[in-house]
Amino acid sequence: MLKIETFSLGPLQTNAYLLSRPEENRGIIIDPGMKPGSLVRRIADMQIEAILLTHAHFDHIGGVEEIRKLKGCSVYIHDLEADWLTNPKKNGSARWPELGEPIVAEPAEYALDEGQVLDFLGVKLKVMHTPGHSPGSVSFLYEKHLFGGDVLFKMSVGRTDLPGGNMNDLLDSIQDKLFELDDDVTVYPGHGAKTTIGFERENNPYV
User: Fold this and answer.
1) What is the enclosing helix (H) or strand (E) of 8?
2) Which end of the chain has a smaller Cβ tally under 10 Å, C or N?
3) What top-level class would CATH report for the domain 3-203?
4) Does residue 100 have a pLDDT over 90?
5) Contact status, residue 192 vs residue 158, Cβ threshold 8 Å
6) How far apart are CA 31 and CA 201, in angstroms?
7) How far is CA 27 from CA 4, 19, 141, 148, in A?
8) Is residue 111 over pLDDT 90?
9) Where are the chain's structural domains?
10) What keywords would UniProt list here (predicted)?
11) Could you tell me the CA-to-CA distances from 36 to 16, 63, 65, 67, 74 in Å, in that order?
């Protein structure tokens, strides 16, 4: 069983997740957001095997380059947003200069795709392509834990008014993929509190 830690980072309070085996001092990171100081301090003596990105909006990728250089780890992202890492206009950081400098990262080493299974830390993470908030949004399923980025929130859903967003695609992703999961799957969203598939299926007013 992996240890799961949450770090709320940057001006938009983006959730970064550290999955680790403390006894082996190894981990992986999902969505290292802006101003990642607390996360960087936590992993100072830890081997980081990979950075997994649910999508490439600026508030989710702000810490990518710092942590990649610090730990020498590879970055994974869906091909539909591969060039967003290198382009501040596409990742949105050029749109809101009041939130920080334009964010530019080197290209990812690996592409993610629907149905892909990643093997890290002795466990398997299934990749689910869940577009709508952005075209390359993915969710990562590890046993009963779903890391969904900005697709599904507690009593809410991701915004679709940014470039590449599509409400119909978002609702399809939630209803046809996420809501097919078991009720007791815990959802770890890109912002805010965690929830469960069952609770959202019964109570989320947007779906």
Assistant:
1) strand 3-9
2) N
3) alpha beta
4) no
5) no
6) 25
7) 10, 5, 16, 19
8) yes
9) 3-203
10) Hydrolase, Metal-binding, Zinc
11) 9, 6, 11, 9, 17
